[in-house]
C-alpha cells in the first residue's frame, strides 16, 4: 500500500517526539533565586548551621522556599531575587569566615523529572550570567623559582663531576658559585659552559673571593616567561574541567594576564577559591635538633625556619626543599587502613628519583609536608601590580620508614572533603608562578534575561511568520509543516538539555533560528515536488510517494554540506562560534527527522490509503 508506515516506524517517531518534549519540559519550570553555603577547604555544612540559617531568616522576616542540603551543598531557596543580596550579607556575618556564601540560581525541576535525569538547558555567560576573571601571573616569582632551580642544578652537576666549591647561592644579578682556588674555578667554568648552554657564565673574582656569576640568557628568560604563561593556562583549564563548567573560556591576554569566563557556574565562590589558589606542596626535613620554644622566641637555627601546623602548634623546618609540587603527576583522595582520610601522590620520573635519593640516606628522620599558598595582600608595588603573601601550613609530619619512590601517601588530614580539595588542586597541577585575580566581573541575571528575551522574540517572530505563511501557500500541507516546525524546536531543546556539555548561548539562539528556516525549506522542496507530480498527471497517492522520494536526495545533499560546515566550526572555533555550531548541528539532524520522517507519518495518517481526486496543496 502506498503512503503507509509500518506500526514500528510510527511508534519510533512518536517515541522520539515524546522523549524530546519530556526532556525539554524542565525548561518551563525556571529557576529559584538562591544562596549557596559551603565550607572553606571542603568542610561540610552541618545541621546546626542549617538551623541557625533558618532562625536568622525567620527573625529578619525573609520569605524562603526551603533550606536544605542538595548535592552536598547547603542551599537556601528564596521567593524573589531582591532578597538574594541581603540574605547573603546576613548569612556571611552570622557564619563567619569558615563558610563561603555565594549567590546561585537553583533549578526548580520537579523530583519526578530529576529522577529520569531531566534538567533545564544550560545557558551561556551571555544568557544566564556568570563570572569573568582577569588573572595576572607574577613573573618575578616565576624567574625567582627558575633561579632556585639553577642553584640546585649547579650543586648537583658540580658534585657529580667532583668539583669542589665553597658555596652556591642566589645573588642579585644571578647565581653566585664560590671557589677556593683559581684552578678549580677554571675547571668549573669549562664544565658549566659545556653542561649548561642556556646560561651565561662570567668570572667575578676579587682579592678575597673567587666566584662565577651565572645568568639566564635573553632567550632563556623569554622562554621562562612564555612557559609560565602557557603552563598556567593549561593548569587553569584543568582546574576548570575539575569544576565541571560547560564551555569555559581560558585564554591569554597580553604578556602576563589570563582571561577566564565561567558561564552558568553553580558555585562562583568555589570557582574563585579553586582558580585563585596558587597552591603546591613542599617536602622538607624537620629540624629535630632545634628547640621549639627557642624558635618561637625568635632564636631559629641558621638554615631553618619556623612553621605552624593546622592546629597552630609550631614546628621547625629546614629551609632546604626536598621536592616541590611541580613533580606531582597524580593525586587521589582516599582512606587508609584505619579509615582516616589521605591523599595518594604519584611523582614523575625526576621527582621519584629525587625522593628516592634523599629518603635513602634519611630513614628514621621526620619529614614534613608543607602546604604553600599565595594570597593577595591588597597592596600594590611601584608598578601598580598587586602583591602576594606566602601562607604556609604543615599538614603532615611523618617519620621516613623506608626509601620512598614515585608513589607515596599524605596522611594527617582533618576530613574527607579537605582531602578531596587538596587532591583536586594537586591533580590539576601546581602553578608555575603565583597568580592573582586583578579583575572580577559578574554578569548579572538581568542582562542575561534581556538577551534571553531578545533571542526568544527572534525565534518567536520567525516561527510565527512561517506558521502564517505555510497554511496560506500550501493549505493543509502547510499545517503539517507547521506541526513539524513546532516539534523540531521542542526536540532541539530536549536534545540540548540531555547532552551534559551542551550550553545555549546567544549565537546558539541564532543557530536555532537558522535551523527553523532550514526545516521549512525541506518541506517546501517536498511540497513543490508533489505539485510538479500532480501537474504531470499522476494520482495524488503517487504524487505524494514520488514527491518525498525524489526530494530526499536534494534535501540530504544540502543538509550534509551544512553539517560538515558545523563540524568544522566546532572543531576550530572557540566560545560563541562553538555554541552556534552545536545548535546548528543538532538542528540539522532534528529538522531532517521532522521534515522528512515526521511529516511523512502525518501525511500518511491524513491521506494515505484513501481514494483522492485532489490534494489540499
Keywords:
49% helix, Multidrug efflux transporter AcrB transmembrane fold, 617 residues, 22 strands, four-stranded antiparallel beta sheet, transmembrane helix, protein transport, alpha+beta, 26% strand, five-stranded antiparallel beta sheet, Alpha-Beta Plaits, single chain, 4 domains
List the helices and strands and how they pair.
Elements: H1 7-24, E1 31-39, H2 47-59, E2 64-70, E3 73-78, H3 84-95, E4 99-107, H4 111-115, E5 122-123, H5 125-128, E6 130-137, H6 139-160, E7 167-171, E8 174-179, H7 182-195, E9 199-203, E10 210-216, H8 218-243, E11 249-253, E12 257-263, H9 268-276, E13 278-286, H10 292-296, E14 304-308, E15 314-324, E16 328-335, E17 341-347, H11 349-360, E18 366-380, E19 386-399, E20 407-410, H12 416-428, E21 435-443, H13 445-498, E22 503-504, H14 506-535, H15 540-572, H16 576-607
Parallel strand pairs: 5-22
Antiparallel strand pairs: 1-3, 1-4, 2-3, 6-12, 6-21, 7-8, 8-10, 9-10, 11-12, 13-15, 13-18, 14-15, 16-17, 17-20, 18-19
Helix pairs in contact: 1-13, 2-3, 6-8, 13-14, 13-16, 14-15, 14-16, 15-16
Amino acid at each position: 500500500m502506498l503512503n503507509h508506515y509500518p506500526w514500528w516506524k510510527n511508534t519510533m517517531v512518536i517515541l522520539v517526539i515524546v522523549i524530546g518534549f519530556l526532556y525539554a519540559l524542565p525548561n518551563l519550570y525556571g529557576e529559584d533565586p538562591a544562596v549557596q553555603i559551603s565550607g572553606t577547604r571542603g568542610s561540610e555544612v552541618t545541621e546546626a548551621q542549617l538551623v541557625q540559617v533558618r532562625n536568622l531568616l525567620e527573625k529578619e522576616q525573609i520569605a524562603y522556599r526551603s533550606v536544605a542540603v542538595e548535592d552536598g551543598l547547603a542551599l537556601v531557596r528564596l521567593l524573589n531575587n531582591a532578597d538574594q543580596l541581603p540574605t547573603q550579607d546576613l548569612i556571611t556575618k552570622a557564619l563567619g569566615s569558615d563558610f563561603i556564601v555565594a549567590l546561585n540560581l537553583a533549578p526548580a525541576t520537579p523530583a519526578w523529572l530529576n529522577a529520569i535525569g531531566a534538567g533545564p538547558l544550560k545557558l551561556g555567560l551571555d544568557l544566564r550570567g556568570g563570572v569573568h576573571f582577569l588573572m595576572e601571573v607574577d613573573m618575578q616569582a616565576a624567574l625567582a623559582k627558575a633561579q632556585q632551580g639553577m642553584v640546585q642544578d649547579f650543586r648537583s652537576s658540580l658534585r657529580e663531576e667532583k668539583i669542589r666549591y665553597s658555596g652556591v647561592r642566589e645573588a642579585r644579578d644571578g647565581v653566585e658559585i664560590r671557589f677556593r682556588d683559581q684552578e678549580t674555578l677554571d675547571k668549573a667554568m669549562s664544565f658549566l659552559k659545556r653542561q649548561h648552554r642556556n646560561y651565561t657564565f662570567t668570572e667575578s673574582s676579587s682579592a678575597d673571593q673567587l666566584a662565577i656569576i651565572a645568568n639566564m640568557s635573553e632567550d632563556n628568560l623569554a622562554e621562562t616567561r612564555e612557559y609560565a604563561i602557557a603552563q598556567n593556562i593549561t593548569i587553569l583549564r584543568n582546574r576548570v574541567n575539575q569544576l565541571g563548567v560547560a564551555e569555559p573560556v581560558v585564554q591569554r591576554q597580553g604578556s602576563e594576564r589570563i582571561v577566564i569566563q565561567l558561564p552558568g557556574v553553580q558555585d562562583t565562590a568555589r570557582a574563585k577559591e579553586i582558580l585563585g589558589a596558587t597552591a603546591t606542596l613542599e617536602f622538607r626535613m624537620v629540624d629535630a635538633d632545634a628547640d621549639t620554644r627557642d624558635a618561637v622566641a625568635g632564636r631559629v637555627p641558621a638554615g631553618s625556619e619556623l612553621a605552624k601546623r593546622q592546629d597552630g602548634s609550631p614546628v621547625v623546618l629546614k629551609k632546604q626543599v626536598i621536592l616541590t609540587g611541580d613533580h606531582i603527576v597524580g593525586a587521589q583522595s582516599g582512606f587508609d587502613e584505619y579509615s582516616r582520610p589521605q591523599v595518594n601522590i604519584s611523582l614523575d620520573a625526576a621527582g621519584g628519583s629525587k625522593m628516592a635519593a634523599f629518603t635513602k640516606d634519611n630513614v628514621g628522620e621526620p619529614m614534613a609536608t608543607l602546604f604553600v599558598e599565595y594570597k593577595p595582600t591588597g597592596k600594590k608595588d611601584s608598578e601598580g601590580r598587586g602583591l602576594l603573601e606566602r601562607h604556609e601550613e604543615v599538614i603532615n609530619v611523618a617519620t621516613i620508614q623506608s626509601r620512598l619512590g614515585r608513589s607515596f601517601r599524605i596522611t594527617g588530614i582533618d576530613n574527607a572533603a579537605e582531602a578531596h580539595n587538596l587532591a583536586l588542586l594537586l591533580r590539576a597541577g601546581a602553578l608555575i608562578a603565583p597568580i592573582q585575580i586583578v579583575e572580577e566581573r559578574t554578569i548579572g541575571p538581568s542582562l542575561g534575561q534581556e538577551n534571553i528575551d531578545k533571542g526568544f522574540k527572534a525565534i518567536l517572530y520567525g516561527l510565527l511568520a512561517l506558521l502564517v505563511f505555510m497554511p496560506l501557500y500550501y493549505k493543509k500541507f502547510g499545517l503539517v509543516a507547521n506541526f513539524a516546525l513546532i516539534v523540531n524546536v521542542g526536540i532541539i531543546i530536549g536534545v540540548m538539555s540531555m547532552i551534559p556539555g551542551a550550553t545555549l548561548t546567544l549565537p546558539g539562539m541564532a543557530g536555532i533560528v537558522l535551523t527553523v528556516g532550514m526545516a521549512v525549506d525541506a518541506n517546501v522542496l517536498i511540497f513543490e515536488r508533489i505539485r510538479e507530480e500532480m501537474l504531470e498527471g499522476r494520482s495524488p497517492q503517487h504524487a505524494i510517494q514520488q514527491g518525498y522520494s525524489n526530494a530526499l536526495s536534494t534535501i540530504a545533499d544540502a543538509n550534509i554540506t551544512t553539517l560538515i560546515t558545523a563540524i568544522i566550526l566546532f572543531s576550530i572555533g572557540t566560545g560563541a562560534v562553538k555554541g552556534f555550531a552545536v545548535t546548528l548541528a543538532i538542528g540539522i539532524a532534528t529538522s531532517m527527522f521532522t521534515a522528512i520522517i515526521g511529516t511523512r507519518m502525518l501525511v500518511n495518517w491524513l491521506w494515505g490509503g484513501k481514494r483522492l481526486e485532489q490534494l489540499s496543496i
